[in-house]
Design brief:
Elements lengths: L1 H22 E4 L2 E4 L1 E4 L2 E13 L2 E10 L6 H6 L4 E7 L6 H15 L4 H14 L9 E7 L4 E6 L2 E7 L1 H12 L6 H7 L3
Antiparallel strand pairs: 1-2, 3-4, 4-5, 5-6, 6-7, 7-8, 8-9
Helix pairs in contact: 3-4, 3-5
């Protein structure tokens, strides 16, 4: 009887461990969920990669989509739920450095819309202005029902930024023809 209980316990433990392994992946030491839920919709992991500066990995980023895609232009232009998840992996990342990097990314991705998007970019900077520490997780999630990007830090909503054009420029930072990092872009696209 004891052997039978031991076997049943081992089988249940193995099944539970396998199910958990399928719900997340570990990428360069960071656990990334395979799916996230936003407004009762499940978004699937499209791809993940790391961003490095001067040989130091600064964050792990993941792209979640409601419909998986390897076409960056379609992703940028889709009016569907999608999210960028950024997990800070270096103590060298600060609010100032993160906002400067995003600002440079917007300059490349926004093109002629940069001036009109400037107030929204400044609003984003205020949502990212708190102290940043290693392990902080930011999610920048587009909600098509109110056409806004929801900014969360460690699962706490910091605020919303309205505008489909802002969403396109934001996702364009990493997915446009002039991305912040070409290798990261390819990783987010699952290439």
């Amino acid at each position: 009887m004891k052997k039978m209980l031991l076997v049943i316990t081992l089988v249940i433990t193995a099944l539970f461990s396998e199910a958990n392994a399928q719900k997340q992946i570990v990428f360069e030491g960071v656990t990334i969920p395979r799916t996230i839920t936003f407004q009762n919709k499940t978004l699937q992991l499209n791809g993940a990669g790391s961003r490095s500066k001067m040989w130091v990995e600064v964050y792990i980023q993941a792209l979640y989509l409601s419909q998986l895609s390897q076409n960056p232009k379609e992703i940028i232009n889709d009016n569907l739920e999608m999210s960028i998840r950024i997990e800070v992996t270096s103590a060298l990342v600060s609010s100032g450095k993160l906002t400067r990097a995003m600002n440079a990314g917007f300059e490349k991705s926004a093109g002629d819309n940069l001036a009109s998007l400037r107030p929204k970019i400044e609003l984003l900077k205020t949502y990212l202005s708190d102290e940043i520490t290693r392990g902080d997780v930011f999610e920048l999630t587009y909600n098509p029902s109110d056409k806004s990007v929801w900014v969360t830090k460690n699962h706490e909503l910091k605020g919303k930024i309205e505008g489909f054009e802002f969403k396109k420029a934001l996702f364009g930072i990493w997915l446009s023809d002039k991305p912040a990092d070409e290798d990261l872009k390819n990783s987010l696209l699952g290439l």
